[in-house]
Amino acid sequence: MSSRNWCRQCVQGGFLCLLLGASPLSAGAQAADPPKSAAAPSQPANESDYETVRLSRPDGSVVYLRVPRHQPMTLRLHRPAISTRVPRPERPDSSGSAPVPIPAGSASRPVVSHPITGRGALSLHADVPLIAPHSVGLSERAGAPTVAGDDATQWRSGRGWAPGGELDDNGLYLSEDTESIVRLDAGDEFLSDTQPPDPIGDDAAPGYDADAIARWDVVPYQTIAGDFPVGILAFHMNGIDHVSVSLEGGPWTNISTMQINPRTGVREYVMIIPGDDPDLSEDELIEVRAIAYPKNVGTPRLLAPLFLYVNNSGTLTGLKLNVASGGSDATGDGSAAKPFGTIQKALNACNTNMALMDGAEIVITEPGRYDINQPAKPLLNSRWITIRPASGLSRDDVVIAAGSTTDLIRPNTQRLRFQNVTLDFSDMYQMYKEDPHAQWYDHCRWTYGQGWTYTPPASVSPVRNVGYGGLYITDSVAENMLYAFVWCNLVRNSHAEKISGDVFQNSLMVVDSSAHNIDGTVLSHHSDLLQYFGYFDNLIIYNVNASMIISTQNIFLDHANSTFTNCAFVNISVQNAQSDPPFSQLNSPHDHVLFYHISNPGQRFVLRDDMAGSKKFTAKNVFFRNCIVERIQAADYFGPIPEGVTIDHCHFNYNQPVGEKPTVGAIAIINSSGGAFEYKGYGASKIAGSGAFIPGYSDSETPDRGAKPWAPPQ
Question: Which of 165-169, 193-197, 643-647 has the lowest mean pLDDT?
């Protein structure tokens, strides 16, 4: 049947057509070949085969729709379409029959919001596109065996999409039902230390002495106002039962399921610090404590306290100091009319009255390249001092650089935030952060102006972070560099591209981040996506997608004075354009190290039990679960898997499976970009719904094997 007739029947049956193809074709443009698949059943089989869209009706009401994710597309005017079940419009009477059409006038048409396609007025006309998206959403095949019906409350349930960057009028991601997020109740304050809980369960059971792996997904010491969603990631070999949280000594509140954090877009354990709590009306420093509890057996982890500043009364607003390349340190006073000429002068001005200038903003009002010379004395500010461009200037208009590869940039500021600026690390020796100080790079661009063939003096990292005093990267990009985001405390929603060395080396927490075009042949360098060397405990790498990876080790847990304890590598996909060698490899002692939902079909995992002494791979509670790999092997290609390693529900690219319940079949990652990717090959049909359930993480009793696509905020 023709697509026009098919769409008319969808309308009459209570369906609306959402056009999810490319923009309307201009004259002379080449149309894509139509899909070869036949029409699919009107309802997917599983709840998570749906994603959520938001329908704003002309009367101001809002409906959240559950959209089938991966029905075969139907061609209409060379634009694919997908049928979506929605509630029927109001009828003129209760007799039923056909629904009343929605008027065609744009003023009276409802608006639909979609993570991939954006916003657009809803139309029932079969040959008029609803919205003009950039790309078509990808499918996920996992899910519980339930289907959302016509009840709108069901459309708000479930995982929905990982946000694609669209916000509603309140700055919240449209896929998230914020009413379902736990709101904390503040107490007066903590009056004593919280003691770590004892292990739970049978002391003879596996994992009894394994600590929960858990970290805050929050930059500390932020100044917040109103409702503020806070996230925690937590994993354990036996699964996570719940995360318990207390705000300012208030009641301990349990969060037992992961949700999309509406502030960051990360699927994690989320709670809201409420802006209307009367105990938070005074602007001050507050403390949040949390404990992650394993499922049935294991050792709970008491997280380090999280400190934030509440500003619900508006008394903690930082003052502004203006800096311009045409300003003057001699005659300027930091006002808009008389800006300073250097950032150093602005920092010195902050030090003249820190009580007044704590949390100040240093606003760059003219395009140019700006050095940061060391201030006269250290700034011991409590709240973040921010360096940012003035309104109207872009990230590329303001470049932080020293002007010489022999000069350090040394701000000597206790908490310094760079926001929406570019840093040229090939025009400085290094950003020198003092050991106890913290720096936060938010919506920044890191780059080498000399390109990715440039090697910095002594191959130093871009930012010094000895002892992990505090280096936080959010919503930023690194490109044309030897090293990207290395030695960081937190990397979230960030992207690396054209990297000739290491991408996330020794970073303690990497979340919802991606890499593209990592090439170990550009320089004579040992290139790695995820390399760790040293003594690590409580490491989390979660939702990482890498594409076009050339001559680079995907995961390298090194043998240089290293141990790896309580580490979680979860939901990582790597598209190797050329590999093996090098191969991913594990060295040194491992204790409670989890590899869950890793898609590594183009590179082997080698467990280096051939090394000597402390360099030898030894294992206790090392798990490969729901992974897609080329092969997992001991150092001896034909040798047995070392003791202490559990491999289950993994898919192998070639006919050499190991572990429990393996599947085998050629499989590859394609269309990999950001958090999106697809699988192709004979093995692709075997990974759907055949994985092992992971308590606290899986959203289905039979999840897919391999990494699941996700989409970071734009």
Answer: 165-169
